[in-house]
Specification:
The protein is of the alpha/beta class. Helix content is about 45%, strand content about 15%. Helix 2 links the parallel strand 2 and strand 3. The longest helix is centred in the middle third of the chain and has 21 residues.
Length: about 375
């Protein structure tokens, strides 16, 4: 008899890594039926959509209040779903503000819960580790320090490596990448990556564009590439670009080629910073929340860095411009530095090699699938 799993991936990165996980589950256990809250990548792997993850895509904190009604209705629907079409296992991917509530529901109904890709509770809101201990049967983590963190609290956690190492990279020369996108080899290019959620775009993209305009005044041969996340659409960005003389090339579904055209990038903190580093693009990390959310988050944050590449390295590899520092003139200054300071660029690229060595061997998605299928259901 085939098993039924319910998966929740609320963001673009979770959808991507979840798709890889489901692909491996289907290889190891054909016939497994999987439904859940998912995006396009998971749907492409045959996951039956319970809800489109983009409907719940918010930053967290006070921003979630805008969609509180939808969140509560969805949780009630999930409770009914678990009672009427009880899954054998619930798989949660990051997205803690919502997924902790799902874990609680499943636990109270006696449904096993596995959490793949830990929320960053080791960085902030560490009190949540008690909820993990209470509601989650197994943590499958992607950074080695996470296993040690959970072991301190007696939580069953296994390190499988980072799923980004499973991504096949089609390495291109710069000219090959530019030719694929139809871009001029006589220009230099800076990437603008404002995040995968509309709430992030609203908070950061206007400042990114102003920074880009400042860079353009100093470096006249520079143009800009905007890789559009799969959770967004080019139409989401057109209102911001309308009337601008700034040369911004939007690219959808050609992320790797777009990134290999870049000389530097301005990247919203999140998994995209790691992807950017692994594609050897010098970057500046930026992030901004609403003022009240920032005050609350800052009071709870326990680590010296926000950017994951800096956390892995244990030092600031990429400049972090957060909240009041995430202003156009500072972004522009850092981008110009990355474009013109050859020794700094070389050092950052060398540091990326160190990060890569700490991320584990390829095969994380398969190892995670194996751990999940070993669980009694």
């Amino acid at each position: 008899m085939s098993r039924r799993f319910f998966i929740v991936a609320g963001e673009a990165s979770g959808d991507k890594h979840g798709a890889r996980l489901v692909e491996e589950i289907n290889r190891l256990a054909p016939g497994t039926k999987i439904s859940g809250i998912c995006g396009p990548a998971l749907r492409d792997q045959g996951v039956e959509p319970f809800l489109d993850s983009r409907a719940l895509s918010v930053i967290g904190g006070l921003e979630v209040l805008d969609k509180l009604g939808l969140v509560l209705r969805t949780l009630l629907r999930i409770r009914r779903e678990f009672k009427t079409r009880r899954p054998d296992l619930v798989i949660l991917i990051d997205f803690p503000d919502f997924n902790f509530r799902v874990a609680q529901i499943a636990h109270h109904l006696g449904i096993p819960v596995v959490y793949y890709i830990s929320p960053q509770i080791w960085a902030w809101r560490r009190g949540r580790v008690r909820q993990v201990a209470r509601w989650v049967d197994k943590m499958i983590v992607i950074f080695p320090f996470e296993k040690d963190f959970y072991a301190e609290y007696g939580i069953n956690a296994e390190f499988v490596g980072h799923p980004l190492m499973d991504d096949p990279v089609e390495w291109l020369t710069r000219n090959e990448a530019l030719d694929r996108l139809g871009l001029s080899p006589d220009k230099r290019y800076i990437g603008l990556l404002p995040g995968s959620r509309m709430s992030e775009v609203k908070l950061m993209f206007p400042s990114m564009l102003e920074a880009a305009a400042r860079v353009r005044k100093r470096l006249s041969d520079v143009e800009f590439i905007l890789p559009v996340a799969r959770t967004l659409d080019e139409s989401d960005f057109r209102p911001y670009l309308q009337g601008l003389s700034l040369p911004v090339h939007m690219e959808t579904n050609r992320f790797q080629a777009a990134m290999q055209c870049l000389d530097a990038a301005l990247v919203a903190s999140g998994s995209a910073t790691l992807e950017t580093a692994m594609l050897n693009v010098p970057l500046c990390i930026v992030y901004r929340l609403s003022p009240i959310s920032y005050v609350l988050g800052k009071a709870l944050f326990k680590l010296p860095f926000l950017g994951i590449i800096n956390l892995i390295a244990g030092r600031e590899i990429a400049k972090e411009l957060l909240q009041h520092d995430a202003v156009p003139h500072r972004m522009a200054s850092e981008l110009v530095r990355l474009m013109t300071d050859a020794p700094a660029r070389k050092k950052m690229l060398n540091d990326f090699q160190e990060i890569r060595s700490k991320m584990g061997k390829p095969g994380a998605s398969r190892r995670a699938a194996e751990k999940i299928l070993e669980l009694p259901c």
